[in-house]
Amino acid sequence: MRIPDFFKNYNDLYGHLVGDKCLRSVASALAAHVGRAGEMVARYGGEEFAVLLPLQGDIEALALAERMCRAVRDLKIEHGASEVAPVVTVSVGVACLRTVQINVDRAREHGDADDASDWPLMHQLFVEADTALYQAKRLGRNRVVLHGYPTTRRYG
After folding, report:
1. Are 19 and 10 in contact (CB under 8 A)?
2. Which of 20, 41, 45, 145 has the greatest CB tally within 10 Å of its CB?
3. Cα separation of 14 and 19, whole Å?
4. What share of the chain is helix, strand, coil (3-state, %, to 5)?
5. pLDDT higher at 60 or 121
6. By the 8 A CB rule, do 91 and 107 touch?
7. How far apart are CA 55 and CA 61, in angstroms?
8. Residue-by-residue DSSP string for 26-88
9. How many angstroms separate the Cα of 88 from the Cα of each of 83, 94, 140, 152?
10. Which helix (H) or strand (E) holds 144?
């Protein structure tokens, strides 16, 4: 998940129409980095985005997230209300499902499950990505955090 840093401040300073244009530009920058079958960028809530990368491992997903973070910064969209940089930046939380988890979940899906509560993996994935995102914010924003890994990299 990605969220432009201090986006409420951006909207307060420039207005919601300019904020919407900014979000479209961010979405385009993110989408330019996906293209394999099944990959997609989707708006997830007000100013958050989810990027789904099927069959990507931790290291590949982390590298892609880092490229996306740089791509947004390279848009050079002025952000006079940011506490991080003079341009729009994003914080990124990355989480990955392991193959073993997916196989177990698939078995449950085709078993005797009566409701969606037996598919915990998608919820778990979003919780882990959200946890990583908030860690990126706590560490100063404008960075990528991979859930379960202690290191981060700041951009700019």
Report:
1. yes
2. 145
3. 7
4. 45, 15, 35
5. 60
6. no
7. 10
8. HHHHHHTT--STT-EEEE-SSS-EEEE-TT--HHHHHHHHHHHHHHHHHT--B-TT-SS-SB-
9. 10, 20, 14, 19
10. strand 143-146
Nearest to 150 by CA among 60, 46, 41, 62: 62
Q: What is the mean pLDDT of the chain?
A: 85
Residue 44 corresponds to which amino acid? Y
83 assigned to active site: no
Q: Which two tokens stand for residue 93?
A: 């939380």
Q: Give dist(CA 42, CA 29) in Å, integer.
A: 12
Sign of CA dihedral 147, 47, 138, 154: positive
Active-site option among 39, 47, 60, 83: 47
> pLDDT tier at 17 (50, 70, 90 boundaries)?
very high
Q: What is the pLDDT of residue 116?
A: 46
Edge-to-edge strand list for the sheet holding 90-94? 40-43, 49-52, 2-4, 90-94, 143-146, 152-154
Does residue 80 have a pLDDT over 80? yes
Determine the average pLDDT of the residues in 18-31.
96
What is the average per-residue pLDDT within 56-85?
94
